[in-house]
Design a protein that fits this description.
Elements: H1 12-32, H2 42-62, H3 67-71, H4 77-86, H5 93-100, H6 105-111, H7 120-138, H8 146-150
C-alpha cells in the first residue's frame, strides 16, 4: 500500500464495490435513525456523500481519468459530477443541480454539526440515481434496479 496515496492501486470494480457498501450502510442507518432529529442523520449523510464520491470516482476512472487528477479534486463532489457529465454521464436536472451544490458538503458534514445542508432525503435520492447510472456503465450485465440493490439488505 502506498501510504501517501491510499487507493491508487484500486480497480474501478473495487471502488464501485466499496461505494456500494457505503450506500448499503447509509440505507441501513436510515432505517434506525430517529425522525425529527437532524443531527441523528449526520452519519447517514456522511456515508451517502462518501458513496456518491466513490461512485463518481469509479465512473471517472472507467472513463480514463487518472487517479491522481481525481484525487486532486479533494472532496469536491460538484466538480467531480461536472467531470462525469463531461465524460458522458447524464443526470436528471434536479440531480445535476443538487450535485453542483455539493462542493463542500462532504467536508462540512464531518466537521460542523450545526451547518445548514441539503436534506438527507435529497442526498439519498441523488445517491440512488447516481449508483444506478454508474453501475449500468461499469457493469452493464448486472441488474441495477432499486429492488435488486436493496435485496442484499
Amino acid at each position: 500500500m502506498d501510504a501517501a496515496y491510499p487507493g491508487r492501486e484500486a480497480s474501478v470494480h473495487d471502488i464501485l464495490e466499496l461505494a456500494s457498501h457505503y450506500r448499503t450502510a447509509a440505507i441501513l442507518l436510515g432505517k434506525c435513525s430517529p425522525r425529527g432529529k437532524s443531527l441523528s442523520h449526520t452519519p447517514r449523510r456522511f456515508l451517502a456523500l462518501h458513496s456518491i464520491e466513490l461512485h463518481l470516482n469509479a465512473f471517472l476512472l472507467a472513463k480514463g481519468h487518472e487517479s491522481n487528477k481525481i484525487r486532486g479534486l479533494h472532496h469536491d463532489i460538484g466538480e467531480r459530477s461536472r467531470w462525469a457529465r463531461d465524460a458522458g454521464l447524464v443526470f436528471r436536472k434536479r440531480t445535476e443541480a443538487h450535485l453542483a451544490t455539493l462542493k463542500r458538503e462532504y467536508v462540512v458534514t464531518r466537521s460542523d454539526p450545526a451547518a445548514t445542508l441539503s436534506q438527507v432525503n435529497r442526498v439519498m435520492a441523488t445517491l440512488e440515481q447516481l449508483s444506478q447510472k454508474v453501475r449500468k456503465v461499469i457493469d452493464p450485465d448486472k441488474p441495477t434496479s432499486k429492488k435488486t440493490a436493496d435485496s442484499k439488505l
